[in-house]
Design goal:
single chain, about 140 residues, mainly beta, four-stranded antiparallel beta sheet, 11 strands, flat
């Protein structure tokens, strides 16, 4: 769940819950500790869970309004990259290559909006495939 940290705060946090019987108990709270403009270090309202690095520990993919793409494992930041565009609201997972591995690939996208000149508007998407110890961008020839 992505929510405001408290009723009087604009800071968003990602909370992960674990089901125990008929109850859901908070397991981890993730805060955005990336550098940059604090007003833009706000998590986007979407997270994607998956196995992005093949180690069978669930990962959480999220981003912020500044364009920071973040991958968390067990509540700890495991990988981060800055997108060339802000507003990385588009997050997805899937199998984007023809590899037979057991992990998920992921896609992130954002947009740059210019209200004064629509010809300068830009949407930008990147696809990532795990390659120890970092992720690599997928080339069209890999698809």
């Amino acid at each position: 769940m992505v929510k405001n940290e408290n009723p009087t705060s604009a800071n968003r946090v990602v909370q992960i819950f674990k089901r125990q019987g008929s109850n859901f108990n908070e397991l981890i709270t993730i805060r955005n500790l990336s550098s940059g403009v604090p007003e833009k270090n706000i998590f986007v309202p979407k997270v994607v869970a998956g196995n992005f690095n093949g180690n069978s520990i669930p990962d959480v993919l999220t981003a912020d309004q500044e364009g920071d793409i973040m991958l968390f494992e067990s509540g700890e930041l495991a990988w981060m990259r800055r997108s060339p565009v802000p507003n990385t609201f588009f997050l997805g997972k899937g199998k984007f290559t023809n590899s037979q591995n057991e992990h998920d690939d992921f896609c992130v996208g954002g947009y740059l909006y210019n209200p004064d000149n629509s010809s300068l508007n830009l949407a930008y998407f990147e696809f990532f495939h795990f390659l120890t110890p970092i992720h690599k961008r997928i080339k069209k020839s890999d698809m």
